[in-house]
Design a protein that fits this description.
The complex is a heterodimer of chains A (547) and B (269). With 547 residues, chain A is of the alpha+beta class. Helices cover 32% and strands 21% of the residues of chain A. In chain A, strands 11, 12, 13, 14, 17, 18, 19 and 20 form an eight-stranded mixed β-sheet that branches. In chain A, strands 1-10-9-8 form a four-stranded mixed β-sheet, with helices on both faces. The chains are: A alpha+beta (547), B mainly alpha (269). Chains A and B meet through helix 6, helix 7, helix 10, strand 17 and helix 12 of A and helix 5 of B.
């Protein structure tokens, strides 16, 4: 009897334990990278695929929680920014090991920072830390404490460390020794990247179990989205980080529980007019494009609700300005998206001497209003938006020619030859902080799209934006920074150098086998908490592994 | 004329007639956006449903057919004339002229034509009307698509240069342009016709390729290329079979052209 009871108890324990292991441990997560990773060096990362790998393998001092948008401690237990905004002190976590077994200390942070700031490395991550002339210094106070000093105040410096994966100063494995939850185990060029669980990862769950739960992640390099979707539907992939609205709707019909709409993302689509003084366009057109009345009229004549509904099947919101409402702290909530008001648009045009004649719009000198909008070939949503803008503006008598160009030709025209009239593109924003937009708003910047690289601001409002952007960048008081950047957003709304169209929603697909996924709006949308993801059953994984 | 050829003739003529009657058959026009019913299935108002922007697909198919069927032969004419000038003359003159022309043609054929088309298209002025853009697109196709035909014509003209009747004409004192125009060119006609017919489907498909890359005819003007772009991302044919109409039409017309062509080739042989 006792023997039978013991046997039953053992059976129950076995079932419970095996159930726990199926739900909580092991398995291989599979998803696609859309291009070949350009580098595995975490300090040289500049492309989406390398970013994904860095996120999964790199250990950082602090991490922006992709869900709450708050900064959280990682390898640093705590940190303190000095009052003048020039210094940050990190207190590091004890007992942390790199994947190769070497121990982590302040020396590794100093080494990483020194390498990051080396001008010969040309690290775009490092560029964000350049606050003024002079070098960035680091002082190892103790094995678990480091002080980093910048030549000038650097606003929001603590958040910048979210992008800095710490490298080992002593490991012979260089960038292969990592502090993140996974390590790169195999790379087949043009085919796949295989990540294996980092056995030395420092983080544990509430039950004291070492993370990550997954054994491995298989990243297949697959640029074709149709193939990616088909493989997801067949169960060969566990998630798709970003999907477009057409696929999303199809998936919603067949398997609504797998399709996730996290709401407006940080990304925006917009158009702008060429205002470059020496651009090879007729003088009268330059005069139109430099008129705020004209730009406002175009903005008011565009039906953004229709763009969101027709082009994105409702999975987009009319854009307000340079900051998406999804950016909880920096969005200026006093601003509203420009409403569709063709009558008001016509009044703006009449104020500048434009008039209608036989259904066509003419300026005061009698020139018919006609311009082209260039956009990149292959972007279906953008091409559709351009055609809808074409029809909307046609109602005002404005003739618009939509031109799609291959991307290199387009970039050459808009950034080197300035041989275009209007352009439509998108801005993929990965940084919540406005410092990430300095290259757009400063009149001297290369990406100041409508009139780049100005020696001195050509308009009073651009000078004001320059002043405000520099003021917010040199202040460490979040309230003051917010005030300055709110004013920038208001000036942009008043002057409409960019005509913001829509903020696309963050759409993703996650298989029902994945547990713990909570898709958000910040990149990486679906696997930002990869170390806590589990697979419901690792049966599939085993089948896949055996294949 | 065999049955297949008769049927092909009827198909091509019917498609041409339908496309020319687009103004009456589809008064909604190809550009008007019915934004309340994007991507809708066939209905009384929209016989083939609407596209992603709510435009009447039936109207777009008819107008697109008109554009592709009118301009592809025009581009074929341009390329055939160029081929006759380069290939025909080089073959007739022979010697160094023929060797130089063949080298030039081979060089031209070795160019990656799709990238060449994309580059040339990117160099075009931006502010051109959709109608002009379609003319330019096909003109570029015609100007870049002559080389293969020129090679065939050069070989044919080379063969004719040493034929008995040309030697006899030469012995009779005929030479220069008159010999070419009176004796050589008329004998090249069958090859020219064949090359012309072959070029039409090639150019239609080339425009469709450019359209798929988003570099073809400018919006809102439709063409078979831009209509075929709608099939991008179509996972199941069963979901929306009406979206396949442009593809079916293209296959039917191309097959008809090929049947007509094969018969024509038999006649010329």
């Amino acid at each position: 009897m006792n023997g039978r009871r013991t046997f039953l108890q053992m059976l129950v324990c076995f079932v419970l334990l095996s159930g726990f292991s199926l739900a909580q441990g092991g398995g291989e997560l599979r998803f696609c990278l859309r291009s070949e990773p350009k580098t595995f060096d975490p300090l040289l990362v500049d492309d989406d695929s390398s970013l994904s790998i860095r996120y999964l393998t790199g250990g950082v001092l602090v991490r922006v929680n992709r869900h709450t948008q708050e900064l959280e401690p990682e390898l640093a237990e705590s940190w303190k920014v000095s009052k003048d905004g020039k210094q940050i002190t990190f207190k590091l976590r004890h007992g942390v090991l790199f994947s190769d077994g070497s121990s982590f200390s302040a020396e590794d942070v100093a080494f990483t920072l020194q390498r990051l700031m080396d001008p010969a490395l040309h690290s775009s991550t490092g560029d964000a830390f350049r606050s003024g002339t002079g070098s960035v210094g680091s002082k190892v106070v103790a094995p678990d404490q480091i002080v980093i000093t910048f030549p000038a105040a650097l606003a929001g410096m603590d958040r910048l460390f979210d992008q800095v994966a710490i490298m080992s100063a002593h490991s012979p494995k260089k960038e292969a020794a990592v502090l993140g939850p996974f390590l790169v185990a195999e790379y087949k060029a043009g085919s796949s990247v295989f990540l294996r669980r980092n056995p030395n990862y420092w983080k544990k769950d509430a039950q004291g179990r070492r993370l990550p739960y997954l054994d491995s992640i298989q990243l297949d390099i697959q640029p074709n989205r149709d193939v990616e979707m088909l493989r997801f539907k067949r169960g060969e992939l566990d998630l798709i980080n970003v999907i477009d609205s057409d696929y999303f709707d199809r998936l919603s019909v067949s398997s609504p529980e797998l399709a996730h709409d996290a709401g407006p993302s940080l990304d925006s689509d917009f158009m702008w007019f060429n205002q470059v003084a020496n651009a090879p366009i007729p003088e009268y057109k330059r005069a139109w494009f430099r008129s705020a009345n004209f730009r406002h009229a175009v903005s008011q004549a565009i039906n953004r609700n229709d763009l969101s509904r027709v082009v994105f099947n409702g999975h987009a919101q009319p854009a307000v300005g340079p900051v998406s409402p999804a950016n909880k702290f920096w969005f200026d909530s006093r601003l509203k998206a420009e409403a569709y008001q063709p009558e008001a648009a016509m009044k703006h045009l009449q104020a500048d001497g434009f008039h209608l004649q036989n259904g066509s719009l003419f300026d005061k000198a009698g020139n018919a209003v006609e311009f082209s909008i260039v956009t990149n070939a292959g972007s279906k949503p953008r091409e559709r938006m351009a055609v809808m803008v074409q029809e909307d503006l046609g109602k005002l008598g404005i003739k618009v020619n939509v031109v799609t160009l291959d991307f290199p030709s387009l970039i050459e025209r808009i950034s080197q030859k300035f041989n275009y009239e209007a352009a439509m593109l998108g801005f993929r924003n990965v940084d919540l902080d406005p410092n990430g937009q300095m290259n757009i708003w400063l009149s001297s910047a290369e990406d100041h799209a409508w009139n780049p690289k100005q020696k001195a601001p050509e308009t009073a409002w651009e000078a004001e934006i320059d002043r405000l952007m520099q003021a917010q960048a040199s202040s460490v008081d979040p309230k003051k920074r917010k005030e300055s950047f709110d004013r920038v957003q208001e000036i942009v709304a008043e002057q409409a150098p960019f005509i913001y169209l829509v903020n696309q929603n963050a759409l993703s697909a996650v298989s029902s086998t994945v547990e713990g996924a909570n898709p958000g709006i910040l990149s990486p949308q679906t696997f930002w908490n990869a170390e806590r993801l589990t697979l419901k059953s690792n049966q599939n994984a085993n089948v896949r592994a055996s294949r | 004329m065999n049955t297949a050829r008769k049927l092909s003739c009827v198909v091509v003529l019917a498609v041409c007639a339908l496309s020319l009657a687009a103004n009456w058959l589809a008064p909604a026009g190809y550009a008007k956006q019915f934004r309340d019913v994007p991507s809708s299935p066939p209905s009384h108002q929209h016989l083939l449903g609407t596209d992603d922007l709510g435009r009447d697909r039936f109207a777009r198919v008819l107008y697109g057919t008109r554009i592709s069927l009118l301009l592809a032969p025009a581009a074929a004419l341009v390329s055939t004339v160029l081929a006759a000038l380069v290939g025909g003359l080089a073959g007739y003159l022979g010697g160094i002229w023929l060797r130089v022309a063949r080298g030039f043609i081979d060089l031209f054929l070795s160019l990656p034509w799709l990238f060449l088309l994309i580059t040339v298209r990117a160099l075009m002025p931006l502010n051109v009307s959709p109608l002009l853009s379609v003319v330019i697109t096909f003109l570029i196709l015609g100007l870049l698509g002559w080389a293969a035909s020129a090679r065939v014509l050069a070989s044919s003209a080379d063969g004719l240069r040493n034929s008995d009747f040309v030697l006899q004409a030469r012995a009779s004192g005929l030479h220069g342009p008159r010999l070419f125009l009176v004796h050589v060119l008329p004998n090249l006609k069958p090859v020219l016709y064949a090359q012309f017919w072959i070029s039409i489907p090639v150019f239609i498909l080339a425009e469709a390729n450019l359209g798929i890359l988003g570099l073809g005819v400018a919006e809102p003007l439709p063409s078979w290329g831009s209509l075929l772009r709608e099939l991008e991302g179509l996972i199941s044919f069963r979901e929306e079979p009406w979206r396949l109409v442009p593809l079916v039409l293209l296959i039917v017309v191309m097959t008809s052209f090929q049947l007509l062509l094969s018969d024509n080739e038999e006649v010329t042989a």
